[in-house]
Amino acid sequence: MIAAAPSSTHLPIRLGMVGGGSGAFIGAVHRIAARLDDEFRLVAGALSSTPEKARASAEALGLARSYDDFAAMARGEARRKDGIEAVAIVTPNHMHAGPAIEFLKRGIHVICDKPLTATMAEAKKLAKAAEQSKALFILTHNYTGYPMVRQARAMVEAGELGRLRLVQVEYVQEWLTEAAERFGSKQAEWRTDPARSGAGGATGDIGTHAYNLACFVSGLTPEALAADLSSFVPGRALDDNAHVLLRFPAGARGMLWASQVAPGNENGLRLRIYGDKGGIEWAQEDPNRLWFTPFGEPKRLITRNGAGAGPEAARVSRIPPGHPEGYLEAFANIYAEAARAIRAHRSGEAPPAGTLYPTLADGLAGMRFVAACVQSSKRNAAWVAL
Amino acid sequence: MIAAAPSSTHLPIRLGMVGGGSGAFIGAVHRIAARLDDEFRLVAGALSSTPEKARASAEALGLARSYDDFAAMARGEARRKDGIEAVAIVTPNHMHAGPAIEFLKRGIHVICDKPLTATMAEAKKLAKAAEQSKALFILTHNYTGYPMVRQARAMVEAGELGRLRLVQVEYVQEWLTEAAERFGSKQAEWRTDPARSGAGGATGDIGTHAYNLACFVSGLTPEALAADLSSFVPGRALDDNAHVLLRFPAGARGMLWASQVAPGNENGLRLRIYGDKGGIEWAQEDPNRLWFTPFGEPKRLITRNGAGAGPEAARVSRIPPGHPEGYLEAFANIYAEAARAIRAHRSGEAPPAGTLYPTLADGLAGMRFVAACVQSSKRNAAWVAL
Amino acid sequence: MIAAAPSSTHLPIRLGMVGGGSGAFIGAVHRIAARLDDEFRLVAGALSSTPEKARASAEALGLARSYDDFAAMARGEARRKDGIEAVAIVTPNHMHAGPAIEFLKRGIHVICDKPLTATMAEAKKLAKAAEQSKALFILTHNYTGYPMVRQARAMVEAGELGRLRLVQVEYVQEWLTEAAERFGSKQAEWRTDPARSGAGGATGDIGTHAYNLACFVSGLTPEALAADLSSFVPGRALDDNAHVLLRFPAGARGMLWASQVAPGNENGLRLRIYGDKGGIEWAQEDPNRLWFTPFGEPKRLITRNGAGAGPEAARVSRIPPGHPEGYLEAFANIYAEAARAIRAHRSGEAPPAGTLYPTLADGLAGMRFVAACVQSSKRNAAWVAL
Amino acid sequence: MIAAAPSSTHLPIRLGMVGGGSGAFIGAVHRIAARLDDEFRLVAGALSSTPEKARASAEALGLARSYDDFAAMARGEARRKDGIEAVAIVTPNHMHAGPAIEFLKRGIHVICDKPLTATMAEAKKLAKAAEQSKALFILTHNYTGYPMVRQARAMVEAGELGRLRLVQVEYVQEWLTEAAERFGSKQAEWRTDPARSGAGGATGDIGTHAYNLACFVSGLTPEALAADLSSFVPGRALDDNAHVLLRFPAGARGMLWASQVAPGNENGLRLRIYGDKGGIEWAQEDPNRLWFTPFGEPKRLITRNGAGAGPEAARVSRIPPGHPEGYLEAFANIYAEAARAIRAHRSGEAPPAGTLYPTLADGLAGMRFVAACVQSSKRNAAWVAL
């Protein structure tokens, strides 16, 4: 036997987590994503606002260190030589800014769930903190991690669609068709609560994903939108359906539909983009396939790692074509990008070419999107600049 | 051998045609549709505005009588004992009202292509003529003839979706992605010409179909819309893309997208309707299948004449499940409905229960839709009442 | 008005029908197919073995002449100046040969339903009669009429798949999952009755279609097969499921599966062919689309009349891409081919290039297929030469 | 901060690996699968037959201990208090038996790639060793780990399909369409080499997966098969295509098709099972959806964790419906099952109810399948008992 001294470049990055105690959906997703490529090791956590629950969750997960709250964790970890290098923040929206600022202040990289914050005021504070920190801020708009989303973006960028005209995006769910928030669903409770979610319901929860995806792939940012928001379920304080018209620079136009009350739809995030030379179509529920439809030629189906797929997709893919990768792999790709950036940051370098993770700018854009939707809808779907 | 004296109930109805000379697409469709169920026999025509072409076309089709223009035909046929009982009008939009009024005046039933007319003024005149005539007026919004569209309508009506909340409809094409109207396409020429098409481009040509289908299946008529129309191809006088928000009575909302510049889409007419109990989804390019998604139950796929399909679909269907029926059969269903109504009309009866063909009211609604889209778009997508 | 003397080239061909009285499924299909392109006019019939039923059916259909039996009809029509030029035979299998021979003898073209006959002995007699007649014999293996089937055949022929290796074909139904023949289904009764159907059950009814399609598209005829037939429903005299291995010349191999006891399958006729350069895939329930998968390139979806579709498909297609054509149109294409051939025959010419209708040779091949399946299965799936 | 002493039940299991050095596909898959649920930690390896490569790979992966060969590793780890508890064997087929026996002998659990071995003789030796060992033997027939495969199995077991009649399974690939083994593909080299793969080519590599899946879901084991194997690529020593007929007890029948020369197919593993009450259909490339087609009712689509999916699927699933899980998650499910069994084994208990991982018996069944295919094919597709 020979000791295989692990090369320092492959030592997992020490990770902490705020939120994500037992029962939380997205915390578990972040942990799997962090672990999948062996780039992070979760060692510390403030997993719950209830200290006992935090401790029990930490023990169940085998964490080395558990804290009663994020502030204690930020202080404690910053002091240690083997303290965490990055922290994942997976709390409800209103609890993003506080911890994020605390860790950024101490130079600890932040990987934060979306949307950025619950309010624009918090978002601005967070932005300031991020600017003043040397640490990185990564927002988990995870759908941009899908290989065929990267492929689509690369194709648009390379001009294969020609000049863009249309961006049609939708994110459609069914889970809030009834008043789940009144029947004991914790997930539904905070997501329909303005105090915890912010001003946007479906808009904030999934509309921001759709918006981010559309911008990511098209390379365009809308100049203005007109939104018609609805709360179909009686007594619901936030929108559960959003109909949005989009206007992009140079005349491109789009539609965005976000709904949580469309029975039969699970996570129907779907993007279609058309230019004067061709179109693409991608759906999250069938993520390994991308339609490319050059005008006047047969439709082409490009599969992950299959013929026609380029290096941008291969870079964030692990297995051969025909073996489906899914949501967790795409989420892990954001973590892998974060790891690349963090490793580069250690040595004062820029992240390797092609590193694409959602940033604070994406988070702010999402906040502006939600605010504009709410404002437009209040003004009877008048146009609001972005 | 025994002469099989055809029972008078099954003597084909004598049909004339205005427009539809050689080379016209929709004329040939009407002829097949009229013939498919042996309910009509085409005997006379004014098939072209050019007399020689009219005559040559009539000869090629084996018509008994050819006329130089529709006025001569109306006069001539009205005079004959064996004159036509019905006429199909398949000219460009600006040539609908004239002939329609002429035949209605003489008590000859009119089967007219959509949209109703090119202008609202013509539409009103036509409406008046129809009111004053005893003859029937049938508008070929052919997509309502698909069996699974009938099935969907019946399910909505029966309350299987609960109270409706969302109506999402789109009709997406690619054929005007480039300036086909400048490269010799007759179809593209008149459809992009305001003098012949009217105020709506994509709006009139396919938007009216989408609008009609949404109303037909949902049983709802929007109260207001907000539209953002575009003409993406330089120099094009009419819209080639329409983004429309819809508001229905009782709080239901919707989106309508009509486009002729989306590469990869051939005739992507797709309807999705959601209520508080379930949803349906149907697509014209896969017309024999209907998704029904009751909330909280497995998704169900209902096939034409398959398990779960009801009498409303069976009534307009000819062959067993798994043997696809298509566009021509759906079109023929409108003709078959027309035939039922005409036969009933002969004996002074109401059409049999379940007869559903698009009427003048549908045509007027379509005209209002186009006008409202144009008006709203000029006012920067402000809401316009319908 | 000017009389439009129909050019003789477009006078519909006078057609008679044997079988197809009221209630029969396939008779109605043949009538629509004959009528769809206005190439035939049905004028005479011996529509049922019961004279009253025959007469009533003829009257309901508006036929000029009704006969009590096919022999009387053959004699009677042959004598008339305006007698039928062609006859459609749409009886159960055991009633194909008799009428076919009778009409062929008198120089009347025969359009006959498949399979050719119920027994090989009949098939041989019919073959002899056909040889001795100047009249044409057309077998309605209707699936070869689909435009994308023509497209597939043309691509194979042009070498786009390279040298063929694999031919996988299946025709899967569900309708005989239970003993429908004992519960009043006329269709099920004769199709499961050896006296009327012949030696093959699923094999004859749908296996012959699958076999014919595979041969038509691949251009190959198997040298040998090994078949394992089953009758899953207790008491059923004929096979309701067939598992068949195929060996083609030059080393290509295949599998054929025909089943009528597979719940969830309506008319699942599906063909996949692979060569050393690429593959194709087509399914009857989605007939307007053809997959073409050149090795090492993105998969391509070719649509009827869309980009990439060639003249062989366009020739048998009526409407633009995205407007689905279906089963009846494909069936009508066989009739249209028959009409072309009959018109050419009139003037002593060969049918126009590209005319492809199934012939007596196809019928005999189907009979050999059924016989070989039955023989192989009795010998425990031993190889039987074809 | 409070130390969160990890509960012993959640300490990851110490894992070693034989094979899987840099560049190997399946080794990386096993590592991700082992890591995904945090149930295993890879600490030792004999990752390559070349010591330097082994060391470099171990270092790159951050392994604590690297060995030059599996024998040294077995001895070394058995001696340590903190030695590995389980080993993953991810070498080519001919290198399964040797290491497996070595570790089993020392009471170390074995997680072994499929097929079991290269030869039946080795398989028998391995079986003996497994019988004599207290350690567990887990075979990674990973496709049985998909949630909807579990769902399908549960539905069959619950009788929802009635009495089974038909089992149709196929695993179709394209990657060996050309002679990849002569153009530098390591994967292709050993998989087409009898010395390393054994007697089966496509049969062993993917046919065993298809066979295992069919048996797993149907609960049936064939009594006999008839196989027609081909080597389409000139010079290839092993089969690259297998056509197989299956006979199950009590009269059920099936077909199995395994191919590596079908362009357009990536990993087309597809299973269809039909009984006298209904059918199911599942495809690996779209793994989160399962069709259930009860005879006489609308087709139902059951989604992972969606309505209609039961506890057997939920048990091996991590995220909500509509967020696709894929190949790695299914593979990880086999590891998670292994972990459950290993933890239970520690305390002398049986694995928790519902634990389903492929065992030695599955491996032996796979070996018999390959042997029977080869034997049958040599005898011209004669039936061979299993």
UniProtKB/TrEMBL annotation, chains A, B, C, D:
Domain of life: Bacteria
GFO/IDH/MocA-like oxidoreductase domain sequence ranges: 149-281
One annotated GO molecular function: nucleotide binding
SUPFAM superfamilies: Glyceraldehyde-3-phosphate dehydrogenase-like, C-terminal domain, NAD(P)-binding Rossmann-fold domains
Domain Gfo/Idh/MocA-like oxidoreductase N-terminal, first and last residues per copy: 13-139
InterPro entries: Gfo/Idh/MocA-like_OxRdtase_N (IPR000683), Gfo/Idh/MocA_oxidoreduct (IPR051317), GFO_IDH_MocA-like_dom (IPR055170), NAD(P)-bd_dom_sf (IPR036291)
PANTHER family assigned to the protein according to its UniProt record, in alphabetical order: CONSERVED EXPRESSED OXIDOREDUCTASE (EUROFUNG), OXIDOREDUCTASE
Name the UniProt record assigns to this protein: Oxidoreductase
Species of the source: Ancylobacter defluvii
